[in-house]
Amino acid sequence: MMRFPLLFLAAGLVSCAPLPPLVTDPPSETPAENSQKKIASADSLSKDSAASVPFVAVAPAVAPKDSSVSDSSNFKPVEPAPVLSSTPKNIPTMALAAELSRDFRVGIQVGVSKTEISGKNYRIAFHENDDGSEKSGALKISANGSRVSAGSDKADSVWIFPGESSRISVDGKEYRGKILVVNSAKKLNVINILPIEDYLKGVVPNEIGKLDASMFEALKVQAVAARTYAYHHFNSRISLGFDVFATVQDQVYNGCASEAELPSAAIDSTAGIVLTNNGEFIEAYYHSTCGGYTDGVEVWGLAPVSYLKSQSDMKNTDSAWCSASSYSSWKKVYSEKELVTMFKKNFKAAKASGNSDFSKIQQIEVQSEFPGRRVNQLEVLTDKGIFTANGDRIRQLFKEGSKILPSSKFKIEKNGKVWVLDGSGFGHGIGMCQMGARARAKAGQSFQEILQAYYPGTSLQCVHSEQ
């Protein structure tokens, strides 16, 4: 198969390159339908840094895969679309603060009792600056009281450095960069330490899909959003020893396993580009499918944010940009018995207010909506009075197994003996609509146009380290 010719564009497309290295030595719906994040994942918000946010399972626990998402196993790039030349020529640079001029730390395993490191050639040390000893093959590491056991050795932490032109595997999954294993509450936290640009190569394909060249601008949009999210969340998990989780609690990161040529080209061609507002990295939330209208962080009970506000995402009067998504419209049907069981079980998680000791549901009404048409307050009349649930937490009220409601944008009515929800959207609805971004890219919009559509009033800047 011919190799895709886009990789050579990295240096030429972005005017802020060449730059000094972004980092020095060490100190974020899975395709769109699977990413509610973002972030994150996003359905994802996180988090320590967003502790006040009600429910953010960030970037979503894996949701059903949309049929429109490219299958990475058969990915065959097509010829570049003309819009590839739309990268702006002059983006202002922004010096990174000293604390950000280091490699990124990703918690790839958290709270495990053991792990296995393997590789053809690596070095193990018990302090970052130690020479350590050369190893190859497999090395079992386990928690031993408050210490870390690596083979016959015990230490407070274990560093694993890859050999030249080599990578390290953790439980069979390969990663760029180095690995740090620390003991936290008598369990292991396994941390991947690497440059942000390398981290993104394991994020972008998981969050928006690998796509084809007709949607290259959407891959660039995702790269900028994910990079911004990463910089915004430096030290957000500092109590655990890293910056972000590798799961939907932040951005879905899968090491080298998900890397592909076209997403990596999109990352390279936007190297260092981030979104800012008043000189600060924005909170670049994104989700899978907005259903025609986005909403603001008010759905989480937070104060309004100027660049994360509700707005129309309609292509025309009859069609949303994300209409290709299988979640552009959806329906749920429940019997009263199912709802009683579901509501009682999920009452606490949904932070519902009222009496949860009921056995019958007499009426369910949407009392108010947010500007983007997601439900603000849901009122349920039972045989023991009224209880209410609010905002994005309402999705938790309808949780079945591990799956919450696709979105809080729905209408509900009783039809005979059953309750019917007619809804649209997948995810929290804040920030970028990934399925909309894909369609906009395919229609010829540039990545900067798409970013402005979802993060209005923000600025593009290109970060660099002064070290």
From TrEMBL:
<dbReference type="InterPro" id="IPR013693">
    <property type="entry name" value="SpoIID/LytB_N"/>
</dbReference>
<feature type="signal peptide">
    <location>
        <begin position="1"/>
        <end position="17"/>
    </location>
</feature>
<feature type="region of interest" description="Disordered">
    <location>
        <begin position="24"/>
        <end position="43"/>
    </location>
</feature>
<keyword id="KW-0732">Signal</keyword>
<feature type="domain" description="Sporulation stage II protein D amidase enhancer LytB N-terminal">
    <location>
        <begin position="185"/>
        <end position="276"/>
    </location>
</feature>
<dbReference type="Pfam" id="PF08486">
    <property type="entry name" value="SpoIID"/>
</dbReference>
<dbReference type="InterPro" id="IPR013486">
    <property type="entry name" value="SpoIID/LytB"/>
</dbReference>
<protein>
    <submittedName>
        <fullName>Stage II sporulation protein D</fullName>
    </submittedName>
</protein>
<feature type="region of interest" description="Disordered">
    <location>
        <begin position="65"/>
        <end position="86"/>
    </location>
</feature>
